[in-house]
Amino acid sequence: MTHALAGDVARMETLAREQGLDLYPVDFEFAPASFMLEISVYGLPVRMPHWSFGVRYIHQLIRQHMGHSKVFEVMFPGNPCHAYLVESNSPAENTLVIAHVFGHVDFAKNNQLFSRFHEMTGGNIVQHAAQNAHRIEAARREHGTARVEAVLDAALALEPHIDTEQALHRPRYPIRSPEPAAEQNEGEFRRRFQDLPGGIAATPAPMQPVRAPIPPHLEQDLLWFIAQYGEELEDWERDIFLAVREESFYFFPVFACQIMNEGWASYWHARLLREADFVSQELYLSAIKAHSDVVSPFATGEQTSLAINPYHLGFSMWEHIIERRGIAAARDIRREDDDFGFIRNYLDHDLAEKLGLFVYEAKDDGEIRVAARDLNQVREAILAPKFNYGSPRIAVSEVGPDGSLTLVHEHHSDGRGLDLERAQKVVDYVGRVWRRPVRLQTVDANDREVEIRGGTGP
Prior knowledge:
Elements: H1 3-18, E1 26-31, H2 33-42, H3 51-65, E2 73-76, E3 81-86, H4 91-110, H5 112-121, H6 125-143, H7 145-157, H8 181-195, H9 222-229, H10 235-256, H11 258-275, H12 281-294, H13 310-325, H14 327-336, H15 339-346, H16 349-355, E4 359-362, E5 368-372, H17 375-383, E6 394-399, E7 405-409, H18 411-414, H19 420-434, E8 438-443, E9 449-454
Helix pairs in contact: 1-4, 2-3, 4-11, 4-12, 5-10, 6-7, 6-10, 7-10, 7-19, 9-10, 11-12, 11-13, 13-14, 15-17
């Protein structure tokens, strides 16, 4: 970091603390645009290599060349936080980005969901991810690229299929089932009968231990289950599944609080810029122009958009909340909620009307029309992509006597269908790792039961 930028960071940090932001230390680094693109695609500065990231890289590169996407910074929550700034940023953009990062840091340090997952994953995910990548590269050298790629195919295909209500480091299931309630009641009756005067002492029959079924209930943490109960997996394969799971836990709060978090950071970068008397008028005007681009309701270079810009929606909501409830109430909301509570509780009718929010539907002939302006429908349409980490609800229901694995799509509670072709590929990926038959029970577009099969015998 240059001396000039270090001075800007120090002044902006002092101002942020004076304005009441509660911050972790932040390490700022410059990075070339090509490396920033890699970070935005991989999600981390160093991460396990996989072909799917290359596909995302090409997609993001095309979007940038079309003017629909620009990366100014990437920030990784932790203690310390790590923030990467693009070398080609203008001084105005860097001024805005530094203030924006401090808004993110305050959110990450004080939001309950971030705090809970931070405690589980630790504050050094950048280092952990680099260590994971190093171990996977060692496995690649020892076991060959094809075998490692097959395991990564399965693990990354299941990346969002974790149970965020469970701990990162959770124990295996109990080996024995608890004694059934009926047997407990019968034992209590026998004891009381034997205590009666003249009662005959009976020799209790030896209890036959009952082995607990695996899984004892529907298990939604597919990465954990396969790592723990895949009989054919080697240790390095389990390590890959658990590494992907750890990184998925780390990213969950970022996903679950995206609208709140980006809006909070945008609100504070605008507020800090207004209060920063050390910023020249010319630089301030340029930074405000950059702010307007960030929180625009439309994607860069487009005149219309049907997608929600989380910066725009979040920024507008925080301004609305602070105007009506005050900054103390806003800080309470920042601490306690995720996007579900935020949207359902604080996106009110007035703001929805002001922002022109609606639910649309696309017909087969390409026509797009407004389907609803009802506030509850608008809220749920915004939140729909966020259910279950953005993926269909799939659970392990049974491991058969032959070691076969049965998965079920909980379509009744999920409300979303599966892309059957894509589901077949995922089942094939899992089958190659499980090394026993794998079946996924779901329904087709006509709500008829379908079973997708993959995997082989030993």
